[in-house]
Amino acid sequence: NAGVTQTPKFQVLKTGQSMTLQCAQDMNHEYMSWYRQDPGMGLRLIHYSVGAGITDQGEVPNGYNVSRSTTEDFPLRLLSAAPSQTSVYFCASSYFGRSGSGNNEQFFGPGTRLTVL
Amino acid sequence: AQKVTQAQTEISVVEKEDVTLDCVYETRDTTYYLFWYKQPPSGELVFLIRRNSFDEQNEISGRYSWNFQKSTSSFNFTITASQVVDSAVYFCALMNSGYSTLTFGKGTMLLVSP
Predict the structure, then answer these.
(1) What is the mean pLDDT of residues B19-48?
(2) Are A57 and A85 in contact (CB under 8 A)?
(3) With contacts defined as CB-CB under 8 Å, which chain A residues touch B9?
């Protein structure tokens, strides 16, 4: 198993450009999510999905779009990049853990470092 | 609303010292999970431990130990005889019972010098 993969590892954009950060997992996990990490802020949830066709917003969703057409893939789209979106982005996946199931361990990808000029 | 507080922004110790990283959480759920992750300078997130709200037993794994106290809503992490390789940012995180959503603390940077 490759686990959770993210591409690209590094990206530099100009303000106003669009791009898609790719995330894929081969563990058949229902749950996938995107976090951003900023200095001194920890990781904050952007969007998440509990299965194909189902997505919802997290703590900081503005400026980002997601879709989940397959179980394996969960791309994050920046439609018009802004300098405030300069960050490290992590994708994570897990089984969709319900109360008491215990299968809640999140597997994180290696991250994408994005700089918006 | 859920919240995780790691009051220590940065800790510096000399090798072989013991060090404790504090984590205080807030949640209204009765069933929840607590996590610790390590982020070394290379940037990846390394899972260290998961603890559910019904298991208050302390855990020890080599030089690492965790103290979970529901009465004080704390889940502290102790490294015994620290080593330079322990230098990293450590995150405490909380997951509620309904979804697999993590709420992270802001992290504690641990610097272990030789």
Answers:
(1) 94
(2) no
(3) 40
